[in-house]
Design a protein that fits this description.
Serine Threonine Protein Phosphatase 5, Tetratricopeptide repeat, 2 domains, 16 helices, about 70% helix, lipoprotein, TPR repeat, Ycf3
């Protein structure tokens, strides 16, 4: 990695940003908010849940274990997409009773246990997923995220590095690796490596704009007003786009010590109702942590 080249790019991006944006208060930045219509629960998912429930109820004594496991897993994944986390966990566990080698069910359980802070169970589930399917496409990400929220940043970085190397053109992999690196390296070194990932990719995925924001190549105002809402994909909704945008804006505000603003952004990510997105899954945890940190820092000194 040519760090001199990366530093030069960062300096250039920073200079461009300084020319086009003036310092703004946190309230001024929040004036640029885009509030999309919350995503509505998909009616097709609800109909499929009803049909699966009928089949499962009628077939408990007739279907073999493999079929029952697959049906319960499918219904659990639909409950998950509808935001019905408790029902989803029940079905994933029942699916594993019938079919103990369902790596995807363990992966989902790992996510759910992370969301509720039960990290030992999360590691156990994600380890099982990787034992059954060593190159599971998302188990390394989810185990890395579990380690990140558990404060085990070295372990998190190892998994998130593995996940990033599997597809360096994915901006979200670069962002999560960066968030872990900030905790184990200097902030400047982590930013240099994020900029290097940006330079190395030829992808035009919109998420690279988030990376540009993080490394100083775009102001927050420009990001919100002129970038985040542009060129939605054919199957992409504004709620999905803003769920991602607000989550990573919240993380950026945390890195800058602006805890109150971070909490607002995480609340906005939650309000999109995009239950399937990783960013929605962890927005509540981030919002609570940001509010607690803001309250702590504004607490009067009574010494």
């Amino acid at each position: 990695m040519n760090y001199a080249k990366v530093v030069a790019v960062l300096l250039t991006l920073g200079a461009l940003s300084a020319c086009t944006a003036t310092p703004q208060s946190e309230q001024g930045m929040l004036a640029n908010l885009v509030v999309p219509t919350p995503q509505v629960a998909d009616g097709r998912y609800q109909l499929e849940v009803a049909k699966l429930t009928e089949v499962i109820t009628r077939g408990e004594e007739e279907l073999d274990a493999e079929a029952m496991g697959q049906l319960l897993y499918r219904r659990g994944s639909l409950y998950d997409a509808l935001g019905l986390a408790t029902l989803a966990r029940i079905d994933f566990n029942r699916a594993l009773d019938y079919q103990p080698r369902l790596a995807d069910a363990y992966n989902y359980l790992g996510i759910h246990y992370t969301q509720v802070g039960q990290f030992d169970y999360a590691y156990e589930a994600l380890d099982a997923a990787l034992e059954l399917e060593p190159e599971h496409p998302y188990a390394y990400l989810n185990r890395g995220v579990a380690g990140y929220y558990d404060g085990r940043f070295d372990l998190a970085l190892a998994d998130l590095e593995h996940f990033y190397q599997a597809d360096p053109d994915d901006p979200y992999r670069a962002l999560w690796r960066y968030l872990a690196k900030v905790e184990v390296e200097s902030a400047e070194q982590a930013k240099q490596e994020l900029a290097a990932a940006r330079l190395a990719s030829n992808s035009e995925a919109w998420g690279w704009g988030i990376v540009d924001l993080y490394v100083g190549g775009m102001s927050e105002q420009t990001f919100l007003q002129s970038y985040a809402t542009q060129q939605l994909g054919e199957d992409e909704t504004l709620a999905e786009r803003m769920c991602e945008a607000y989550f990573y804006l919240g993380k950026l505000q945390q890195l800058q010590g602006k805890w109150d603003t971070a909490a607002v952004y995480f609340r906005l990510a939650l309000a999109t109702n995009v239950h399937l997105f990783l960013e929605h899954r962890y927005a509540a945890m981030e919002m609570d942590a940001s509010q607690a940190r803001a309250a702590y820092e504004t607490k009067p000194n009574v010494d």
